[in-house]
Recover the amino acids of this structure.
């Protein structure tokens, strides 16, 4: 059994075939899916989707691209949503200095406020970090985010940075790019980090793994990521699926793998 810990199934690209996409994931052994919020509307949609499907779970939060939208009212609405039994984390939140769609100061403020709120409601965090490694780490440290834990979604740092997160109990998210032939940094991480610190994520519809690179991504393709990680570590895909799913169970507070 696999667990896709990062999907964007609320996006309009799935409007025509969302049910089929979810059914294909189940057929490929992706038993649990986490639907990630990007703003208030998609957080609400994620919760609504998770409400009517037993194997779907949701997170709520405002992405750094949307950081300017995080006013007090939005924060309150997200806090209310976070209490829903199918909400497993706060995210995705963080800093994006790569696309840089929002001024850094606004991103930092939104990240800070959401970290404080996640801590107040006792939820782990799903963290987005593009070219902001040291600032993200410093803000997590300042917010004492290590206590409840979190995942560095689509981790883009080196092994030394990964080790700093592991030492603080955070998980490292691996996505489709680990299947790309030239992704040697990711191959190194996938081969050498402790398996009990890794989570598998598609980040669908983005980051489509080989051999479907260039097409819309979907959770059924998680198995290509699991297969590549298994190959890099000399393990069976079943072993990778079992351990990474157990990691998700621990982080998200699910009672078991059943
Ligand atoms: Ni994402």
């Amino acid at each position: 059994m696999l667990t896709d810990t990062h999907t964007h199934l609320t996006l309009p690209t799935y409007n025509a075939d969302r049910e089929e996409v979810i059914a294909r994931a189940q057929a490929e052994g992706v038993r649990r899916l986490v639907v990630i919020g990007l703003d208030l509307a998609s957080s609400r949609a994620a919760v609504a989707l998770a409400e009517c499907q037993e194997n779907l779970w949701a997170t709520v939060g405002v992405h750094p691209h949307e950081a300017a939208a995080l006013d007090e009212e939005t924060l309150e609405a997200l806090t209310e949503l976070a209490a829903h039994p199918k909400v497993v984390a706060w995210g995705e939140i963080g800093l994006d200095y790569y696309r840089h769609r929002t001024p850094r100061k606004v991103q930092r403020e939104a990240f800070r406020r959401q970290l404080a709120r996640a801590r107040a409601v006792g939820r782990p965090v799903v963290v987005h970090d593009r070219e902001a490694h040291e600032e993200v780490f410093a803000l997590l440290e300042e917010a004492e985010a290590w206590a409840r834990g979190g995942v560095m979604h689509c981790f883009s740092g080196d092994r030394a940075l990964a080790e700093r997160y592991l030492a603080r109990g955070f998980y490292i998210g691996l996505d489709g790019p680990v299947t790309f032939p030239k992704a040697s940094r990711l191959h190194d991480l996938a081969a050498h980090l402790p398996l009990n610190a890794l989570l598998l994520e598609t980040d669908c519809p983005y980051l489509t793994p080989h051999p479907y690179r260039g097409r819309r991504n979907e959770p059924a393709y998680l198995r290509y990521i699991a297969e590549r990680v298994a190959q890099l570590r000399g393990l069976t895909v079943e072993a990778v699926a079992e351990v990474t799913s157990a990691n998700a169970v621990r982080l998200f507070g699910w009672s078991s793998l059943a």
The two ends are 10 Å apart (CA to CA).
